[in-house]
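Re: weekly structure request thread

Next one in the queue (122 aa):
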Amino acid sequence: VQLVESGGGSVQAGGPLRLSCAVSGYTDITGSDYYCMGWFRQAPGEEREGVTTSLSGGKSTYYADSVKGRFTISQDSAKNTLYLHMNSLKPEDTAMYYCAASRALCTGLMDYWGQGTQVTVS
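Done, posted below.
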């Protein structure tokens, strides 16, 4: 299983951005009774935090309070891709964003991680 993020970049505050995560071995993940896919982020000098997770294709979703109402997680099984739709971006959203997946419930302990994509909001 490999995860590759894309879509990061520099954006003005208030603007939108969509991150993509191409998942090779997608069915290896989604074939489990339960699987979790999500997005995490880490700003310089800070710990990594969970932004949003989705259990088994949307049976249950989690959003950090700081992004509720602004970010949306989605996945396209036909394209083996996970997305993070970000709106009304704020400077405090600046961070390296990582997608992650696991063949288990969403506990924050993910089995697979991407290399990250940088988002800078000014």
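Residues 26-30 form the longest helix (5 residues). The two ends are 34 Å apart (CA to CA).
Next request, please.
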